[in-house]
Amino acid sequence: MTVPMVRDATARDVPAIQHIYAGHVVTGTASFEEVPPSVEQIAARRDDVVALGLPYLVAELDGRVAGYAYATRYRPRSAYRFTIEDSVYVAGEHHRRGVGRALLAALLARCEAGPWRQMIAVIGGSDNAASISLHRDFGFRHAGTLQHVGWKLGRWLDSVMMQRALGPGSDAPPPGPGVDGGA
Q1: With the CA atoms of 121, 125, 130 and 134 taken in that order, what torsion angle do they form, in degrees rounded to the nearest 10?
Q2: Per-residue pLDDT for the chain (183 aa), expressed as one digit of tens each?
Q3: Is the entire prediction scored with pTM above 0.90?
Q4: Closest by CA position to 29, among listed 163, 150, 161
Q5: DSSP notation for the chain
Q6: Can you tell me the distance from the alpha carbon of 31 to that of 177, in angstroms, rounded to the nearest whole number?
Q7: For 180, what's the count of Cα atoms within 13 Å in the CB-facing half-sphere?
């Protein structure tokens, strides 16, 4: 089996990223969006993530984008500034080929090198066993389930919350200036 190659996403990757995400939006429950965003909207979202100094990655198989992952702020308020949320999406034809595993490993490595101390996974649907298992394999623990908070594809969906420490986690104060106030 070919090993996925993970790299930083570029503007050239945005159409492939949009295509992968649109498939999840239209047919799946991993995202609670119901209308696929345009290529321009995905480009703006990617630019926002990169502008924050957070990683936005793609995985290639046989020279084609097979999935993508990124980290973003968990919440906008300043007290959350050391907590981030991950997103991992794999093209349907590339499921079970190690793409999600390669992406999450690379994303965690990048985030461990930064100032962040916690990563949150908000997983769409309690029945999303593949995503729950992937996150568990990388040390995420179940932090709670918000039941019936989304309505999509004719049914109520849960949000499964999982959490993983980054670096020393909460065993030490976060690094650098602004620790005790402001962002």
Answers
A1: 10
A2: 688 999 999 999 999 999 999 999 999 999 999 999 999 999 999 999 999 999 999 999 989 999 999 999 999 999 999 999 999 999 988 998 999 999 999 999 999 999 999 999 999 999 999 999 999 999 999 999 999 999 999 999 999 999 999 999 999 888 876 555 544
A3: yes
A4: 150
A5: -PPPEEEE--GGGHHHHHHHHHHHHHH-SSS--SSPPPHHHHHHHHHHHHHTT--EEEEEETTEEEEEEEEEES-SSGGGTTEEEEEEEE-GGGTTTTHHHHHHHHHHHHHHTSS--EEEEEEE-TT-HHHHHHHHHTT-EEEEEEEEEEEETTEEEEEEEEEEE-TTGGGSPPPSTTTTS--
A6: 35
A7: 0
